[in-house]
Fold this protein.
Amino acid sequence: MAATVFRPIVEPLKHIHAIPAFITLFSYSRLLQSPTKLVSAFYSTPKIPFSSLPSFESTPVASFLLHECGFSLDEANKICKRKRNLLAQKSYDNSRQTLHFLRDKGFNEISVRKIFSVYPKLLRSNFQGITKPMVEFLERIGLTGQKMHQVLTRNPSLFGKNVSRTLEPKVSFLQSVLDPCLGVVVSNPESDKVAGTNLNFHKIAGKVISRQSLTTSVILNNPRVLSLSRNILVGLVKDVEGMCIEKGSKAFARAFRQLSMLNRDTVKVKLGNLRELGFTEEEVGILVKRYPQLLGLSKDKVRQNLKFLDEEWKLPRSAIMGNPAVLTYSIEKRLKPRLNALRNFMMMNKSLEKAMSYPSVYYMSMSDGDFHRKVVSRLPVE
């Protein structure tokens, strides 16, 4: 019955341009007044045929990711969802060159898949113009083999950086700050070739960087430093200079590396926390200069260690200034067990107890093996 009532109302809608407007409105109003008829109209209306879309597995990108890179179907799907224009790419010869190049450089299958997963843009990157020159540039500055693997797996976005416009100027700036006295150490035909094709590398970077340079060390420990803008790098250098640390020193490189891992606003908060805990401006500079990792600690952690070292170890502030690393040690796993062992040890050795007004920082910083051999092994077995 519903189909009989519905048919004369719906069929004219197929030729809606030929009916007066008031009849059309009347027909829709009748449908809206009866939800049952409206549903019937939806399901009885002929469906528009759609051309069948190709399955994901049949696309070129799927074939490349599944059969040549070794991704699972779910992993390949996630990559394409992050970079949807990959589905429109018809040829993957460029990506295939990149894949073979990475394997030739010693990247294992897990590293290759991680790089493509984190940085899908590499699948559309210009191999000859961007990817290959970037890898060769890292090799030139001493990041070869496992060092190069570590840098690129931790910061795959470097695959998209242009050597002459981005990487060379940044490395040149870092070298002028971290290795100001470094001379030309390496020179070979390959270096000369790169120097001639990349805006005169020797003129831009000044010199070829030593494999032992502080610049290379900073990049290795924090590859994301090459993704920071020049303005940020200049600001970080000024922050380290404000700590009265000499340029070109290892302390400068350590402080710069630590600051480069943090937001500048966070650094200001961390320095303020140290002042609030009773350290003077000069003492804050000394602490950070000697152990920049302090900037990675929370205010509560520093406060707890200070309190324990002051109340339990009876450690003077000068001893902490001499070895700021003690502020990073675990109270429950390191400081407290060692303090208990030392107290028992000094009770056995009265001369040692008289000579030491407080347990030496030396006992805190030594390795577990040395502490066991020099202290724990001499205690009586209970």
Notes: Residues 331-348 form the longest helix (18 residues). The CA atoms of residues 49 and 146 lie 56 Å apart. The chain has 23 helices and no strands.
